Every structure is written in C-alpha cells, then in structure tokens.
Amino acid sequence: MSESCNHDCASCGxxxxxRKGAPADFSAPLNAASHVxxxxxVASGKGGVGKSLVTTLLAVAASKAGKKVGILDADITGxxxxxxxxxxxxxxxxxxxxxxxxxxxxxxxxxxxxxVENPSDPVVWRGxxxxxxxxxFWTDVHWxxxxxxxxxxxxxxxxxxxxxxxxxPVDGVVVVTTPQDLVEMIVSKSVKMAExxxxxxxGLVENMSYLSCPYCGKRIDVFGESKAEALAKRFSIPExxxxxxxxxxxxxxxxxxxxxxxxxxxxxxxxxxxxx
Length: 276
Fold this sequence. Notes:
- This protein is of the alpha/beta class.
- The protein has a single domain, classed as P-loop containing nucleotide triphosphate hydrolases (Rossmann fold), CATH 3.40.50.300.
- It has helices spanning 51-64, 81-84, 127-139, 159-167, 183-196, 228-234, 247-254, 266-275; strands at 35-43, 69-73, 92-94, 97-99, 101-102, 108-110, 145-152, 172-177, 201-206, 211-212, 219-220, 240-242.
- An 8-stranded mixed beta sheet has the order 5-6-2-7-1-8-9-12, with helices on both faces.
- Helix 1 (51-64) packs across helix 8 (266-275) and helix 3 packs parallel to helix 4.
- The longest helix is centred in the N-terminal third of the chain and has 14 residues, at 51-64.
- The radius of gyration is 20 Å and the shape is globular.
- The protein starts with 34 loop residues before the first strand and ends with a helix.
C-alpha cells in the first residue's frame, strides 16, 4: 500500500495486495413487463406478532386510497396472505411471466400457496432454495403497473430477509412487534438489520397492544404497558400505531374477508408510511 493511499480503491488504478473490490451487487431485475413504484417490507425479529395482518391492512388501506397494490408473500414456509383475501387455486404463466392472483378489490397477490397442489403440505426446503423462490417472485411474476408492492417477510434475520433487502429495491421497512418485555430485543434486531442493509425503517406497529373492555370501554394492557412510543423514539422511527386485541381481526382473516376490515386510524398510518 502506498503512503499516499486514500483508501478509495474505486478511483485507483494501481494493483496492490490490499486492494478491495467494489461491493457485490445482488440486486435482481424486476419482471420486464412490470413497473413497481415503491417496495415496502413488513418485518419482525420473531414470529407470531402479526406481520401478515399488518401487511394485509397496509395493502387494503393503500388500495382504498386509490393506489395499485401488490403483495409478495415472502414467508415461503408459512404463507398466510392468500387466506386473508379468500384466494385459492393455482396461477398460470403467460408471455409476460407468472400471473399473480387478484383479490376482489384488485390487489395482486403472489404466494407459494398459489403454486402448490395442497397448501397444507409442509415446505421442506433448504434456505437457498427458499431464497431463490422469493427472488423469482420479483423477477418472474408479471406484477404489471403497481404504485406499491408490500413484502410480507418471514420472521428473523436469515436467508429470506437478506435476499429481499439485497435483491429488491426496498424503499422502507415497517417493523411489527408486541408489548412484551422482550420486545426491545425484537425491534432492535429488525432495525439493526435494516440499518446494515441501508434500508430506512418508516413505521412501527405494536400489535395486540391493549384490549378495550366490551362492557365499559376501559383499556386493559393484557401483555403489559405499551412500549411503542419509547421504542420509536429510541430508534428514530417516524410513524407508530398501536393495534388492539380484537377478535374481529382474526374472524375476518379466517373468513377471507380482510378487505372488509375497518381499523380506526390505520388508513392515516398507511398514508403517512407511504409518504415517508
């Protein structure tokens, strides 16, 4: 290494033993017949916190606001998005690519459950294969013209989240959590991974945050006091929303009627997240 080295290998024409190459580019090209305006990933450091519910609600809110919306279900081993919209059956291919299935309101959905014969069969695949399928959902699916594509991520910080962050042009991340004491660790993992991948965290949703008594309306902190605002402040997350424990959420999703859900405050939250 020369004494005059400025450590900028990209602008240096000399060859030396400590020369560093340019960072590897893992970005994947979008399907040639498609155009996607924004990509928003919905993530969490652990499972069972409601990522699919939040993804669904975001997509429905954006659709009701007049946007053309798609959902890429990246949770390959536990896909649940099709059930939320009452979608079943396979998809098909055209000259433009694999055609996603459309919900009643026109939300375009691609999930592994659209490609397997029996959706209840387990997906026993290794990580690289699963990550490859997620990438193909971006490159081989004919999404058409979309204003926003939401990506329902699997839990954790493994192969699939890494593939999504490296291969797709993610514009923002919405982190989903719950009010338990270990929540700080959960949010920290997701936020730190997003920071490592240079993806902004644009929103935090605390699911199952409280229960409203059906008789007196009193707020009950079933899983402990809300930590949403404190966490948002600590990690500089611009938008937050607390969702209650509400049996109607599960009932609507189980019935495939997610597009009929009315969640107070969610439309405004979605609009703010998409404007960040």
